[in-house]
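Changelog-adjacent note: as of this version, every example in the card shows the full chain rather than a window. The one below runs 380 residues end to end.
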Amino acid sequence: MVLHSFAVCRLGRCACAQDNNGDNVLHVAARHDAAAVLELLTSPGQPSIADAGLVKNKRALTPLGVAAYHGAARSAALLLTAAPDAAQTTDRHGSTPLQLAQRRGHAAVAALLASSAGSAAADSKADAQRPRTLIVAPPECELHLTCPDQLPRGSMPPPENVERLRVLVTPGRGILRSTCFADSLGWELQVAPAPIGDVLRVHDWNYLRTLQVPRRMPAASSAPTPITLLRSLPLPLVHANVRPLPTSADRAQTACIAIPDRPDAIAHLDPDTAISHGTMQAALRAAAAACVAVDRVVSGAAANAFCAIRPPGHHAGPRGVVTSRRDRTGSHGFCLLNNVAIAAAYAMNVHRHGFATSARLTAWLQTFILTAADCTPLPC
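Full-length structure tokens:
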């Protein structure tokens, strides 16, 4: 009764008047599925009802969109009759009332809207006009382990760990897999490793050799040398056949392939940066994903792209660690291959569409290489 009086009062002033949330009287009635109020408001002779039915609130929802969102079937039927054009409107995410009802699981409202004239055309038009973001997420990026996959109770994982990806892309759990993104995102999961030529546009060959397959594995019977396989957690680790030499010239002996293929086998390049058996596979897929994103956006297959990848790369210089006057030893900073620099170099060499763009990319890459060569910090 209170809502009914409120609606009549507002209608007497102006059906299109909006409150602080952008709602007019029809939005309020639709939210509460107040069918009796809507019957009064949409009865013949009421002023401005068709216009009021097309007004959007701050969430860019019309009254029909509000009814679809909340599953108010009776209200949706009345609003559809009063303002049929509202079925063709979209919210700020590009969704029509029909798509909202389907996404929220309101079958009765969805069936009503699907049967209305123009809904199918509106949906196809919205799909065609909606800019789609491509998510490039090779699953091999989860092979890069920086701590044991199952941590003991009370242990704190390092800030860069596999959960950073899982909370984004894991089906049924990741935020990017939620139904609200279903119509606006495209996915590309199958990504081949980056060709070494793409990586060598940015990184020094000798640096890559420290991360790739070593030329020779240390013999199991050789004399033991200092173990550089570091772990911060008290879990058992068998390292009888992993005896990397401690000198920088033989850093290849600490290559990822030399680390046992076990979820608790973690080595460190420095106190910040951990590697595991699958790290190099993950790094090459991550670099390739950035190049795939360039291809898809340049070709027009995607409006833009987001690469859900790891290990990260923004701290990695051409030779890996970048030192400075304040930090003579430097750190990899969790990073191995500079994915953004590799993608920029790829775009410059493969997709030359204008001298100005190529000149900017060339200048950026020259700055990247010279800055690292001069041993000054890279901008992040």
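Structural remarks: Residues 279-299 form the longest helix (21 residues).
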